[in-house]
Structure formats: C-alpha cells, structure tokens
Design brief:
The complex is a heterotrimer of chains A (309), B (329) and C (516). With 309 residues, chain A is α/β, with parallel strands linked by helices. Chain A has two domains: 155 residues, Rossmann fold (3-Layer(aba) Sandwich), CATH 3.40.50.2300; 134 residues, Rossmann fold (3-Layer(aba) Sandwich). Chain A has ten helices and 13 strands. Chain A has a seven-stranded mixed sheet with strand order 7-6-8-9-10-12-13, sandwiched between helices. Chain A has a six-stranded parallel sheet with strand order 2-1-3-4-5-11, sandwiched between helices. In chain A, α3 packs parallel to α4. Chain A is elongated and about 60 Å long. Chain A starts with a helix and ends with a strand. By secondary structure, chain B is mainly alpha-helical. Chain B is globular and about 75 Å long. In chain B, the strands form two sheets. In chain B, strands 1-2 form a two-stranded antiparallel ribbon. Chain B has a two-stranded antiparallel sheet with strand order 3-4. Helix content of chain C is 33%, strand content 25%. Chain C has 18 helices and 22 strands. In chain C, α4 crosses α5, α8 crosses α18 and α14 crosses α15. Classes of the chains: A alpha/beta (309), B mainly alpha (329), C alpha/beta (516). At the A-B interface, β7, α7, α8 and α9 of A face α3, α11 and α13 of B.
Chain lengths: 309, 329, 516
C-alpha cells in the first residue's frame, strides 16, 4: 500500500512539474467546457482543439467534461471566471440554462466562443457550428443526383428523434428528396446506436426484397446496417451513406469500401482555436461562423474529400 | 381440453409458455407482409436476443438469491473493450483474450458479490456502484473512444488493421446459415447455468439462501460463499456477452451494454422468477428471453415508432408479471 | 376508591379456540397490579384488548366509571392507556427529544416548535428521573436506556394506566433498580400500573396486588401480602399432569455433549447476557429437558452451542470427550449436532422449496459427488426419512409451504434425521401442531434415545417437559436455577425455579409434589 502511495506521489510531482513547465511559456489560458465525452464525436472535438492548440505554445488549454449535466457545465463557467482564464470555449449541453453564466463571463471581460450548439441570446463573442439540416439536405440532394429516376428505395436509420441533430438530419433529407422518385420505405429511431441500427436493418432486410440505399444519421448506424446486409449477402449493390466522417469511423469505413459516402459534420475544434487566437490578439471576428461540410467517397477519400457547395 | 389447459396454467412454466405463445401469435397477426414467416427472421431474433439472454443467465442466479445485479451492462462494456484491445491492438491469441476477459468479469462480479455477501450492502446499492465503476473503467481503458481495427499511427495517419478472424467466426452462422454462432454461445451459457442451477449443490443452495437465508444458514449452507459465487458467475456471463457484442459490432464500444441490465431483469421476471428470491429456473428465464426477444423483433419488422414500442413493451411487461403473480391461497 | 380501569367478563377466541374466558381485571390509582401466568395463559391478549389492538372481544371496559371500547391503539392512548411492549416503539434514527414527542409534537401552523419541544422533552425525562442527552440518536442508546425512555414517553402522554410487559427482561441489575424507582414515582403520582413479569423477586418487591391467569381464566386475584409464593405457583400450575406421554427411559450412556461456562451476550453490549456461564452435560440416550419461561435464555443457549450466534457466544464445548470449536453451524453439523429451531417457518424450513430439498438441505455435501447432486439418491433418502417420520404429503416434490403444520415440523425434523446426528437440540419440537403429530414426535424421541442419540429438549409446555425429560434443568434469566431428576420434578418446582427461586435443600422436602 505504502509503496503504491509513494508511486502516486511521484507521479503527481512529475505531473505538476510538467504543468508548470507548460504554463511557464504560455501567455494565455483558454478554458474549454465540453458537455460530455460519451460520444466519439465530442472526443474528436477535444482532440481537434488539442491538436491545433499544441501548435501554439503561447496558449494553454484547460479541458473540463460536464458529463451531460447542465449544472456541472454552469459551474465550469463559474470556475473559469474565478480562475481568470483569458478566454472560454464552450460546447453547451443546453441553450437556455447556459446563457446566464456565459453573460457573466462576458461581463467579467472574458470572451466566450460557443461551439456546435447555440445558446439563447447573443451575448457571446462568437458562435461556430455546422448546420445539421443543411447536411441532411446535402445527403438527399446527392442521392437524388445519383439515384434519381430509378425509383430507388431507402432505409433511414435515424438518430435520436428527441434531439435537434436527429430531427434536422431527418427534415433536411426529406426536404431534398421531396418531388423525386426516391422513396423511404423503412424508418427506425436507432438513437445513434450501432447495435440498434443493425437490428433494425435486419428487420428491413427481412421485410423488403429491394433496398437500394441506407441512410444512417451517423456513420456507426450505416456501418451496423452494412454488417446486417453483409451477413445475408445483400450488401453488394446497396449504397450505405452516413454522416460525421470521424477519422476512425466514417472515413475509415469509406476507405474500406464499407460506406459509399460519408458527409462530414465538422467539430470546429481547430477553427475555434484559430479564432480564439485572433480574439486574444485583439482582432475583430465574425459573430457567427457556419462551418462548411465535406463529402468523402471512395474516389476522393485519399485526397481528403471534397468540400460541399 | 380445458382441463389440460387449466392444469398447464397452474405452473409458472405453463404460464410463461402461454405468454410466449401469445407473443408468437402477435407476430403472426402482424407479420409485416410475411417477413415474420421467414426462417431468417427467427434466426435473427434468436441472435438479437442472445446477448441479453447471456446476461439473463447470470441475472437469474443473482435474482434467485433474492438479489439484483445492475452492473451487468457495464461489465459487458468492460469486457467488449478489453477483448477488442487484446485481440485487435495487442494481437493476443483469442483463447488468451477470452480467458482474460472471463477472469476480469469474474473479478468485477466478485467485487459486487463480496460487497453484498461480506460487507452486507444491499444488492441494489452494491451493483449500482459497480455499474458506475465498470462503465468508468471501460471509458478509462479506451480513453472514451471505440476500439476498432482503425488505429492511429505515429504519423497521425489512420491505419486499417486486419479484423481478427475470431470476430468473424463469432458473427458467423452454422447449419447452412440457419443458426448464428452467437446463439450457440447463448445456448451453451444457458445449458451451463441450467446444469449448475438444477444439478449442482451450489444451485440448490442459491434457492435456499433466496428462500430463507436464516434457515439455510442454520442448515450449514455457506451463505456468504453462495451469494459471492452468484455475482461472480453473473460477471462471467457479462464477460461472455461482451465478447459476443464486440464480435457483432466489429469493435469495442465503451458505451456497449448501456441499459441492458433493465432488459435482462425484465427477461428474468417475465419468465416467472421471483424478485424476492427462492423461486425460478433457467427454463423460465429461457421463455422470458424468447418472449422479450420476439416482442422486440415484431415491433421492429413492423417499423413501429419508438414511442409506441416503449409503451407496448411496458404494457406487456406488466401483463406478464401479473399473470405470473402467485395466487394468494 | 374507584378503579382507574376495570375490565369485566372479557372473552376472546382465535379461530374458534378460546384464549380468554370471562376475565375480570381492575387497576386502582397508585397501585402496581401484577398479572401472572404461564406462557400462553392469556396475559398478552388481555393487555392487547385494553390497548385497543383487538376489537372483536366480548365484555366491557370502564375507565373512571365510564364505558369505553377502544378500537385502535391510538384511541386507547388518547383515553390514557399506555402499553410498553418488549418490542419498543421508538424510531431509532431520531433523537431522544423527537422520540419523546412522537405522535404528539408541539406544532404551530404545521411547524414544529423546537424550543417548546425541548422543554417538554426535558420535563418528561425529569419526571421519571432519567438523565439522557436530548439530541442523541435513540439508536446510539443502550437497550436499557431505550426501555426507560419508552416509559418516559408514556408518562408524557399523560397516561394514567401504564402497562409494562416484562420491562426488566433486557435490563441489568443496576438499570432494573432505576426502573423500580421510576415505578415508585409513578405510583406516587396516582397512576395505575399493570406489570407482567416472570420474576418472583419482582413480584415480591413491587406488587400491591396479583392476578393469576391460567388457560384464559382468572384463577385468583388477591393482595400481594395474601399471596405467598407457594400459593402463587400452585395457582399458575393448577391442573393435574396426566400421563399422555409415553417416555420409555433408557439407560443413559457416556457423556455425549458437555458445555462449560457457556455465555451468550445480548445484541447490545450493555444489556444483560442472554446466557450467563451455563454448564451442563447430556448423556447418550438421555433426554435433558430445559425448562424456563420467556427470556430464560434456553433458546439462545442451543442456538449458541450450534454456532448460530457467531461472535456473541463463548464457552467450552465437548462432544464425546473431544473439545469442539464451533464457529458456524456447519462445524456443529459435522460434529454430529442438529438444531431443530423453534420457528419452523422463519428459521427451520425453506418453504418455497420441495419437501425433498428441505430434508436433504443439511446433508447435500454427503449426497453429492464433487458437488454434483444425485437427484435419485436425494429422492430415496427423502422417501425413507419421510416414511420413518410418518410424514404425510401428496408428493415429496411439492413445496414445503403446502404441508400442514405438523407435517412441516416433521419435514424440519427430517432434515436433521437425514444428517444422521448423535446429539439433537430440540427447541419446541411440538409447537403449533396437532395432538396426533405430537404423539408421533414423542414416539420418535423414544426411538432416537433408544438408538443412543442424546437430546436436549426445550418446551414451554409443562406437561411435555415433565413427561419427556429424564432430567430437567430450569433456567431463569440466562442462568440455571435448578436441576431436577425425573423423580424430583414437579410443575411447582419447575415454575418456582423458572421464576428465579434458586433451589435450596429444604425445597426438595416440600410436600404436595405431583409426580408424573
């Protein structure tokens, strides 16, 4: 026991030295409050922030995880204020309850960059985010271009339908295919979960002889659908399309020929750091940045995908 | 005819079988353009119920002692990511990885068991704590990311490794494609659990401890060891379920198995095993597993919206438990 | 002087069996009225009727000359009747002050008036002369203080009739003195006290009047001064003991079990020990009866010997000349001991399991190979044991729950016969079973002793104790107060000893001894 205790003490001292070493050079401290790290996409967002921040020795990042709890996230902001950080990046869990602490930070003279989900009111320095509805629409338009006129049938494996991203990815898509001869024949709420998507796809396969396209609201859903089709030998000739394009998921699936296409939902983590440096350097920045998306297909994945118009 | 029926319904097994038949009839009525009558549908139903079923085997042991195990889903997650890391990233041979996962599952279950049997914590509390701890452990091991064959190389490039063959083997089928290996694993688990429960001294002691702990103690039953082993056995089942889950997902997801404990408990209870302990059997649990498994499948092939699925499942669980309630004498 | 409470012609039966039959009972202001009687004489039922626990009785109750019929404990409390049960009615996590005011807190507009509460609580403690921290949690108090706190609570509720059901049973000598002084105070304030006790010493010391119940009937009620001890015992015993029980004594063999200096401490360290340095030995083929009234400690003695009270029992055990260390029941079972517990439903059988499973429960290891059970062997053993016990069941595969009481008892006995014991510890083997089954069990006891099994028998039925025992040890508050041979034993002598009279040499010479 005692020996283990000593080992911990050593580790703490070393960690503290590192921290001091890092802060010795840093001019600015940026606090980052992530609403939860249960989703790989948000893990990626933090990784993107860290990757960009590592290129700039003059800033030091402090990451906090709110574990999907709005109250914890509120206290993050309060802690950042009392720690007098130079800038706050927040990817909020909820729009309403976080508006007030963000205003407080602004009042204390700390600029705030809001990432991914907007908050109520305009009292922040900058909002950076992508548009789920636009991306859902882009998926639909792309499919209409590719499959229009052949009466293609679609299975839609939806993200959690009580969440805004899930609803937007659905609504944008439906808007785009309206008027075409593409038809959604099977829909299920898979709550972003791959095992659920596989099960629902198996039901769709049992029920429908002809399935041309599977649209998964996220890449794991499309991947689960692929596994289901593969296990009954029906994956050939079926198109699997997903959203998010994380390096370990969607992009890798496209590289392997599992997914036909994946549409990026950018985290904006790298952009946020670049913008933060501008703010700290006294430059004026745009109030809102809507991130552009990219599409990755077998043809362009090696080249890093293509930006969507 | 009516007499035979009444006699059949006087036992828990008869009532559980009736519930299952009613759900099957539901499937025939709502057969989704004949999809319900395809062999593949039943094969998939069985496979989809298998992971839950493996958890329910362990859960049955614990419930018979009068306890409950809320940590099964989380331990499944730990096992899924451990198995993936060991085989995908560390290139362990699969038997060694399986053994390691089983030992890890037994250890985590054993800790719950120790807390219940020796420290006399309420099973609900002890296993709730383990639910949190094991989920945290799964996230700690993986850094919050899914473990797949896509590995980031030192250069930052994502490298795609070969999927270990054991993943494909577990997610394959035998009998001319009519039986999933995952289901075979489930049948083995339920057979092992059945043999222990029905034929081993320990199985009998589980019933005694659940039925009347004080009488069991005064009959010389090692009460603490009996309970401890129940939770450790449940932990082993979680480990096996985790491996089966990872193989079907071709990855280790630290979130795997979230909320599965609720489904496993529902399967055990619907079968007729009493939450107050002392009564139940593996046969009943098997019927419970099939009932819930088929219910999920029928809702899925009919593409029933999520809101309705939840409500229908809730109603069926209540009806089933009401049927199973022992009539007051 | 008018009685505070007066009960007239009280009758009550449970499921057709009369437990009280036309009992009259009065309590006057400023007196201690002792209610005496053997176990099952009807004392508790009478008290419960006074306390409003039953409403389906015949007879009348008057309080201060006014007809009342309390139909709930709450109503009885309002009428000024407080009962201090052995199972206390305190809420352990709450403080002393909160407990004292429980059920009648001082409130204004729904809010507790904390300061007034405290004042009221400390006044209540002062009235009984008890010195406790008002803010301390009751669960941290020793049992003795809790018992006294319960009395303080009753006093605060302005109870005029206070019923105490064996209040001293958990108290050590010092706390008992405190209790007696509290009772003296309560008497002085004109309250009437009904006191139930099994201790002769307490009767002599406290009682102003004594009423004796026997088999649900009032058999005597007199001023204490006119009720000498011998007469009291005679009233309690009353009936002739017949020879329904065929004990065929066999020549006792070597010593099977020797117990030396065996003690069991209470659940609470401050409480008196439940068993206090008891020594005894029982020979092969002998039935040693353990007599005593409630709280004699005999059950705890057997449970302790059997390893059922780990951490609380201490003392030396010797089985067939070899010292034995028992830490858990398994150790005792392996040494050839078997304990038939006194409550077959709570601690004897697993009612949800089959009769066969119950019979095999203590012998599973022996019946299994490498832990794997052999159902055929189990069924065979259960059938053999069932037959030898004349156990009647439609099938031995049915749940023990569905058996009749007598057959359940036989299944519980069967569990121990299957384990092939050499020493049987029987705690109330005939409780709650019918006459036929009782007779079967007596026969079996004869058969077992003929085979050389030693039996330690606890029974609260005096005739059974006298008839079946080869030798009787009487216990009172954890100690042995008397040892009687079969020829010396009489109901009177057992009862006197059970009430705390230590057998002296001259006592043996007393006449009017009923032999059996």
């Amino acid at each position: 026991m005692r020996r283990i205790g000593k080992a911990w003490a050593c580790a703490l001292v070393v960690a503290a030295l590192f921290a001091m070493g890092a802060s010795a050079q840093a001019k600015w401290t940026i606090g980052m409050s992530q609403c939860n790290l249960g989703e790989p996409w948000r893990v990626q967002m933090n990784a993107d922030i860290k990757g960009e921040a590592d290129k700039h020795p003059e800033i030091k990042m402090v990451f906090k995880d709110a574990q999907n709890d709005t109250l914890i996230q509120r206290s993050h902001v309060e802690e950042f204020i009392s720690a007098k950080v130079n800038l706050i990046i927040i990817s909020p869990k909820e729009a309403q309850p976080l508006a007030e602490p963000v205003s407080k930070a602004m009042a204390a003279g700390i600029p705030v960059i809001v990432l991914d989900r907007d908050i109520i009111g305009e009292n922040y320095t900058q909002f950076i985010g992508a548009d789920n509805k636009k991306i859902g629409k882009a998926v639909g338009e792309w499919l209409v271009r590719k499959y229009g006129g052949k009466g293609a049938t679609i299975v839609e494996l939806m993200g959690l339908q009580t969440s805004t991203p899930g609803q937007d990815r659905h609504n944008g898509f439906i808007e785009a295919i309206r008027g075409s001869d593409l038809k959604v024949i099977f829909q299920a709420d898979c709550k972003w979960l791959e095992p659920d998507a596989r099960k629902e796809m198996e039901s769709a396969l049992a029920r429908y002889k002809r399935i041309d396209v599977v649209y998964g609201h996220n890449d794991p859903s499309a991947h689960g659908a692929f596994l289901a089709a593969q296990s009954v030998g029906r994956e050939k000739g079926m198109a699997f399309v997903g959203i998010d394009s994380l390096p370990h998921e969607g992009i890798a699936y496209v590289k392997q020929g599992i997914l036909t296409a994946t549409f990026q939902y950018p985290t904006g983590g790298d952009v946020a750091v670049v913008e933060a440096l501008k703010v700290l350097g006294g430059q004026k920045v745009a109030k809102r940045i809507v991130l552009g998306s990219r599409i990755f297909t077998a043809d362009n994945v090696a080249a890093g995908g293509e930006p969507l118009k | 005819m009516l007499k035979t029926l009444r006699k059949a319904l006087s036992s828990s097994a008869g009532r559980a079988a009736l519930e299952f038949l009613l759900v099957l009839a539901l499937g025939m009525a709502f057969n989704a353009d004949g999809a319900f009558f395809k062999l593949g549908t039943h094969r998939d139903t069985l496979r989809q119920a298998s992971v839950y079923g493996i958890l329910a085997c362990g859960m049955t042991m614990v419930v018979i002692t009068g306890g409950i195990d809320l940590s099964v889903g989380s331990i499944l997650g730990v096992s899924a990511v451990s198995f993936s890391i060991l085989t995908m990233h560390m290139d362990w041979p699969w038997p060694a990885a399986v053994l390691a996962c089983v030992l890890l599952g037994a250890a985590l279950g054993g800790v719950s068991g120790g807390l219940v049997a020796r420290a006399k914590l309420q099973p609900f509390i002890a296993t709730l704590a383990m639910q949190y701890f094991a989920r945290g452990l799964a996230k700690y091991i993986t850094g919050g990311k899914k473990i797949s064959t896509y590995v980031t190389a030192k250069s930052g490039e994502v490298v795609i490794k070969e999927l270990p063959s054991i993943f494909k083997d577990i997610d394959s089928r035998i009998l001319w494609g009519n039986l999933s290996i995952v289901s075979v694993i489930f049948f083995v688990c339920i057979a092992v659990a059945w043999v222990f429960l029905a034929r081993h001294k320990w199985g009998r002691e589980l019933y005694s401890v659940g039925g009347n702990e004080e009488a069991a103690r005064l009959s010389g039953v090692p009460v603490r060891m009996t309970k401890f082993l129940a939770y450790a056995f449940a932990g082993i089942m979680c480990a096996v379920a985790g491996i089966a889950q990872a193989a079907q997902e071709t990855q280790g997801d630290p979130e795997a198995g979230k909320d599965y404990e609720v489904i496993a408990i529902a399967m055990v209870v619907i079968g007729g095993t009493s939450l107050s302990g002392g009564r139940g059997s593996m046969g009943l649990t098997l019927l419970g597993i099939l009932t819930i498994g088929y219910l999920q499948k029928i809702l899925s092939i009919n593409a029933v919206p999520e809101a309705w699925r939840l409500m229908v499942t809730g109603v069926i669980v209540v009806l089933a438990v009401l049927t199973q309630r022992r009539r007051a004498k | 002087m008018r009685a505070l409470a007066s009960m007239r012609g009280i009758s009550k039966s449970f499921g057709g069996a009369p437990v009280l039959d036309g009992v009259d009972f009065d309590v006057f202001p400023g007196e201690v009225h002792v209610l005496a009687g053997e176990n099952g004489a009807g004392k508790s039922t009478l008290i419960k009727i006074l306390a409003g626990a039953y409403s389906d009785y015949r007879g009348t109750i008057e309080l201060d000359g006014r007809r009342v019929r309390p139909v709930s404990p709450l109503e009885a409390k309002r009428l000024g009747i407080a009962v201090i049960h052995q199972e206390l009615s305190l809420v352990p996590p709450m403080s002393v002050a909160e407990n004292l005011l429980l059920g009648s807190p001082l409130v204004r507009a729904g809010f507790v008036r904390a300061r007034a509460q405290r004042a009221g609580a400390s006044a209540a403690l002062a009235e009984v002369g008890l010195n406790l921290d008002l803010d301390g949690a009751v669960e941290d108090l020793p049992i003795s203080s809790r018992q006294l706190l319960e009395i303080a609570k009753a006093v605060r509720l302005e109870a005029r009739v206070i019923v105490m059901d064996e209040p001293s049973s958990a108290l050590n000598a010092q706390d008992a003195e405190l209790l007696f002084s509290i009772i003296a105070r309560l008497k002085a304030t004109g309250r009437g006290i009904v006191y139930i006790t099994h201790r002769m010493e307490e009767i002599q010391r406290l009682a102003d009047r004594v009423t004796v119940l026997r088999d649900g009937r009032m058999v005597g009620s007199r001023e204490a001064a006119r009720m000498p001890e011998r007469e009291l015992v005679a009233l309690m015993v009353g009936r002739e003991v017949d020879d329904r029980f065929p004990r065929h004594g066999s020549a006792p063999g070597s010593v099977a079990l020797r117990v030396e200096g065996f003690s069991v401490r209470g659940a609470d360290r401050s409480a008196r020990p439940l068993v206090d340095a008891v020594s005894l030995s029982v020979r092969r083929g002998e039935i040693l009866g353990l007599g005593g009234l409630q709280d004699s400690g005999a059950s705890q003695l057997l449970l302790g010997i059997f390893g059922g009270l780990p951490g609380r029992a201490s003392g030396r055990l010797e089985v067939e000349g070899r010292e034995l260390s028992v830490r858990r029941p398994r150790d005792a079972i392996d040494a050839g001991l078997a304990l038939l517990s006194n409550d077959r439903k709570a601690t004897g059988l697993v009612l949800s399991q089959s009769v066969t499973a119950n019979i095999c429960a203590a012998s599973l290891g022996r019946l299994s190979t490498w832990g794997w059970r052999n159902p055929a062997r189990e069924a065979g053993l259960a059938a053999r044991i069932g037959a030898s016990l004349r156990l009647k069941a439609a099938s031995l595969d049915m749940e023990a729950e569905s058996l009749s009481g007598g057959n359940q008892q036989k299944a519980a006995i069967g569990k121990w016969l299957a384990a092939d014991p050499r020493i049987l510890l029987l705690d109330e083997p005939t409780r709650g079973i019918d006459v036929g089954a009782k007779h079967d069990i007596y026969q079996l006891m004869n058969e077992w002793t003929a085979r050389g099994i030693a039996i330690l028998l606890i029974t609260s039925e005096m005739p059974e104790l006298l008839a079946m025992s080869d030798r009787i040890l009487v216990m009172h508050r954890g100690r042995i107060t008397s040892e009687l041979s079969r020829d010396e034993a009489s109901a009177e002598r057992v009862l006197s000893a059970a009430m705390g009279k230590v057998e002296a040499a001259e006592a043996a010479a007393e006449g009017k001894v009923r032999r059996c």
